[in-house]
Amino acid sequence: MKQILQQLNDGKTVVEEVPVPAVRRGMVLVRTAASLVSAGTERMVVDFASKNLIAKAASRPDLVKQVINKAMREGLIPSLEAAFNKLDQPMPLGYSSAGTVVKVGEDVLDFKVGDRVACAGGGYAIHAEYALVPGNLAARLPENLDFESAAFTTLGAIALHGFRLASPQLGESVCVIGLGLLGLLAAQVARAAGCGVFGIDLSEERVRLAQDMGFSAAHRQNCVDLIGGITNGRGFDQVLICADTSSNDPVELAGEITRDRGTVVAIGAVGMQIPRKRYYEKELDFKISRSYGPGRYDPQYEEEGVDYPPGYVRWTEGRNLQAFIDLLATGKIDLHPLISHRIPIEVAPKAYDLISGNLHEPFLGVLLTYPSKEEKNSQQKVLVTPAASNTSADIKLGVLGAGNYAQAIFLPLIQKAAGVHLVGIATASGMSAQQAARKFGFGFATTSETDILENPDINTVVLLTRHQHHARQVLAALRHKKAVYCEKPLALNIGELAEIEAELAKAGAPLLSVGFNRRFAPMSIALADFIRQRAEPLYIQYRVNAGFLPLNHWLHDPNQGGGRIIGEGCHFIDLLTFLVGTVPVSVSATALADNDRYNQDNVQLTLRYADGSVGTVIYLANGNRNFPKERIEVFSNGRIGVLEDFRSLALVTENSHKTSHSRLRQDKGHAAAWASFLAAVRKGGMPPIPYDELMNTSRVSFAALEALRSGAEIKI
Fold this sequence. Notes:
Blueprint: E1 2-6, E2 13-17, E3 27-37, H1 41-50, H2 53-59, H3 61-74, H4 76-87, E4 91-92, E5 96-104, E6 116-120, E7 130-134, E8 138-140, H5 147-150, H6 153-165, E9 173-177, H7 181-192, E10 196-201, H8 204-212, E11 216-219, H9 223-230, E12 236-241, H10 249-257, E13 258-266, H11 276-282, E14 285-288, H12 299-302, H13 317-329, E15 339-344, H14 349-355, E16 365-369, E17 381-383, E18 395-400, H15 404-416, E19 420-426, H16 430-440, E20 444-446, H17 450-453, E21 460-463, H18 470-479, E22 483-486, H19 494-504, E23 512-514, H20 522-531, E24 539-545, H21 564-580, E25 584-591, E26 603-609, E27 614-620, E28 630-636, E29 639-644, E30 648-652, E31 657-661, H22 670-683, H23 691-710, E32 714-715
Parallel strand pairs: 9-10, 9-12, 10-11, 12-13, 13-14, 15-16, 18-19, 18-21, 19-20, 21-22, 22-23, 24-27
Antiparallel strand pairs: 1-2, 1-4, 3-5, 3-7, 3-16, 5-6, 6-8, 17-20, 24-28, 25-26, 25-32, 26-27, 28-29, 29-30, 30-31
């Protein structure tokens, strides 16, 4: 299918052939009929992408600070690599569209194939021939409503939500500052609600358009003189700021023309230096409208389909979408006068030349149009580099997943590996699959995991997907006789782990390894060698400054991420096993009080070993990411080893103190872990990490959660 992508590195807006998304649980696949180009949000993305590197840095000092802090923690080279990798990933454009449902995912009850719908959401209602949209971000269309009008629904819901925040009453007066697309929509919403409407803009042309649509309107220059007469000297009851400007003038003007104890709502992106004296003297109520209603930025609502009860939240973003559609269907709002351009998807970059000012012609509502029938090339699998090199290689590789970690760390390792034929890569997003395939040299990109897991031309699979998919995908790959390298964790519960163990116990089972890379790090190996010859138990303290994660992050979800102990703590449990040289036999756990903030992320695990060794993992979310993340201290037999964030290692005995440093980059063992796996696959020998240790690490993670719940020491 065709999709519009914004290249962040070179600023080009391009139309690419990408795989059609695979329908997922709680989502609907929609064939797009029309989509609206945002002259505000999308122009900002395009403008940022077109800047040179220095200008990009100057416009986003917050991101520069992140890179600097990362460089201080992890080294200059990996930090720059991560930054450039981020710039090398294209962005999907679009957030408002309309079309027809062609597939329905599990648990979707409100839609069926053939339904006509409006779609919303950045990353969902994209400019593409097909869009995968969560159920709560789609709204059914009546038969009398055309797709072109429906494509405005997201922007209409933004206007509607801003209007609701003003809490107008029938007959009150509303002023709209900024008569662009958003402002004219807000004006129509206010009129439909029975309010008197007045508009203000810097453009004479847009003032005339508003007047042609039946609104009173004036140019900014002389508006104040008119307003006194229009409002009988009171000022407006509500002012809706819909302008798109960095200037503070709209906020200052709103304070001047709003009545005593009136309401000002900022809907557009404007300067926000509020003149206190004016707002104080009038006791104005100033509100900022957050997109298109409650539910926005809530993953449970937008991604998982958990709705708010209408008795408590009457107007969610989904219900605002439907309310705007109802206004369109009844003729209370007419959008056709606002459509200035209709541009086919094939030549979509022209739309961005318009909104960025490269084409000097007036515009307002810019719509992209799409083929009315399914194109032959609209498939889940797209050939990217059919003549991919090394087709005679012994390892024929397929990959599932191409997220940030994959593209920054693992896929570059895969690309560099000798003797590996990169057959194909699959992701849920066609865009990311296509981009990764092109960048790293895979033969095809797909959104269907079966194209990888059941492909007879693939004998080795790497799993870089979200945690909830790991166990199922590992089992599928093993059953199709493919060696598997799986990122952690291996499983989210004991049942999944038992199935994997049973599969590995079968005769002729392929090789499995898990991405516990830290045990392969050069400094970890040096530390293990330093303490290997001992006559006493070890004491190891492993402090992890993990950093805060919001409670709504997917990693906290037990069904998606498993929580931070299972999802990340397994790394540290495995490294302790490697250093001690045997698996733990029990675990106990204690956590700080959560205060409704941390989800038991501040926790101490105590692991005991058969030889008397004790290891503690102190995992903390209440620290600061600007400080180094990991510190390991080992004590035994008059020896002390201190590993600091895989950048320095101190080895101390009674007679010596040796220190080594890696100043430019961390080495957490990713490359060595991957090389060890490839060597094991080729030789057909023992797995890089013994299976008893792999399985024990998962069991200890599960037991740690039980220890937290029960307060008891849990035997493994």
